[in-house]
Predict the 3D structure of the following.
Amino acid sequence: MPFSKLSLAPAMIRGVQAMGYTEPTPVQLRAIPVVMSGKDLIASAQTGTGKTAAFALPVLSLLGAHRAGGPRVLVLEPTRELAAQVETAFRDFSRYSDIRATVLHGGVGYGRQRSELRAGADVVVATPGRLLDFLQEGELKLGGIQILILDEVDRMLDMGFIHDVRRIIQRCPAQRQTLFFSATVPPEIASVASFALRDPVRVEIGAVKSVTQLITHAIYPVHQEQKFDLLLALLSAIDFNSVLVFSRTKHGADRIARRLREANHSVAVLHANRSQNQRMEALEGFRSGRYEVMVATDIAARGIDVAGVSHVINYDVPENPEDYVHRIGRTGRAQAVGDAFTLATPENASDVRDIERFIGREIPRLKLAGFAYKAASAFPQYREPQGRRGGPPSRGTPSHHPRGKPGAHWGRR
């Protein structure tokens, strides 16, 4: 079904077509009619399935033209990166209308954000802390809010924003439409939903604990002292567009990035110790292709949306099994295919088992052909599935090998 069949405003259909989208994703197909009907909604879908458009397109269609008098839509986001990206999406989708959107987040000065609020905005996308600052100043009032959207609700709960979120909701009109969008729906969301939503419709797309079938993922067992060497070997072997490398720690991310630069890779770094300007420059450089590799901590697992990430490499195994799903979900987005590798040491065996229990399946173990593994690098606690030894997971054709690089495991399609 095309977007034109979803009762969206003509200007929004033109906007989505200008961005190159022709067919709605499953979450868009199911959520857009609910939002257009004016009902409250709790929607959960795996990361990378188009949740932003699922609420932005119908909300913009309901707004009509720009109107003075304060914001009519409030979107809460857990991180400044997500807030900036969602505000950009609202601007892109509404390019053929006069609707105004602005973003409020920390890490930068108040001047420009204050000026844009005073100039008038129909849509405000904000992080809780900066929004509360403007509310306390009296610079912003929420009495005109018609639609309240809480995006990445599970992440907001994880980050401890529940009390701030409650304070913000209490300042919004009781008569409003409220939308919750989340990758997962933990039990804690019910406590927020009980006072924030009225008889919500539930939309669930896919198994929230699973890895999308568009992603081929595997574990590469390796000893700790050979991890970086294996990372370099994988980067040499695979045919990639862009690679997102995850580190558990900020210092680890800096160290990996420094060594990759020494190996002549163009590298960006993203973690909490980077300034807002540094973070935005890293994201823009990664999106544009100026940087071929981005090394990030889990702040980026749900904090960036970059089209065309061909590979994710977990340099460190995540401690939280759910983070594994979110990390590797940075590739294989918007119905594209992607590859994800995890470098696992013998010390990571219990974490790997936890991840496999969480996703309900065993992850293939692979060795990189031609890599000089040290003796006893095949760990007994890692059971290699039959038929996988020494080769890539099959997608059914040999075309998944890197072009012109025999012996490498996976490449781009």
The chain has a mean pLDDT of 84. The chain has 14 helices and 13 strands.
